[in-house]
Amino acid sequence: xxxxKRVVQTxxxxxxxxxxxxxxALFNNMLQLNTGIVNRIISLFGHEQIIFLQSTKYFxxxxxxxxxxxxxxxxxxxxxxxxxxxxPALNEAAxxxxxxxxxxxxxxxxxxxxxxxVVLLILKLGALMQNDITQIMMFYNSTTYEVGDVIGxxxxxxxxxxxxxxxxxxxxxxxxxxxxxxxxxxxxxxNGGNRAMVKKSVFHSPxxxxxxxxxxxxxxxxxxxxxxxxxxxxxxxxxMNVVAKAFSNKTDVAAGRxxxxxxxxxxxxxxxxxxxxxxxxxxxxxxxxxxxx
Length: 293
Hints:
Shape: globular
Largest sheet: none
Order of helices and strands: HHHHHHHHHHHHHHH
Radius of gyration: 24 Å
Distance between the termini: 45 Å
Strand content: under 5%
Number of helices: 15
């Protein structure tokens, strides 16, 4: 079980370290017409395939899902840190009183990590007006400006794309003011949260005659295990599918035969093409120079 937990943690943390360029490539790979796994499943059920990345109906959902997929594993580190700080005596007392696993989570764990949850919520509210411009610019295009433009991308397109610096500066001043207001709200909410942390939560567990592992405990454990496994698969599959396509020949990729995590006919032609490119070598040199500087 400990080994399984370490594997799941590693797999779910992995997306956080991928740049938005790579994340866009992963989602574009899954959402492509004919060859994408999502559209292939849609076709399997007899429905018409969808151009997701050019659809104003699905664009916002894709942005939200990609953000969740990238940062869920990393955000769990804070939650896990809060859970490890919970006094084991509280769980032991609840177990002796006959509380099930779900009841221990509901009445012991969640109240103890309430302050951690509040801090994460405040941090998200403080950054409400500061969207990840890189993510939006990678995913959106001219057909999705209406639902995809945020303040940062709007400033970029107006100030640089259309060369309207005055208009861009005025918009930026509004953004800066909203950011200040968000920071002020964050400070006030944090002070209120600190005062609330002084209050001590009291656990009142329902008593049962039997102490031990009941059917409800086993069912709750099975549900948690299934959810964690599905989360690991969701985080792991897109990355490995792209890796499999990178090691596959062009014929298999064009025909949409590579849907798993293993290439049908392994080859290194794609890597040889990239490595032999002079622009690739220049990009590595420029990356090192910028990092050192």
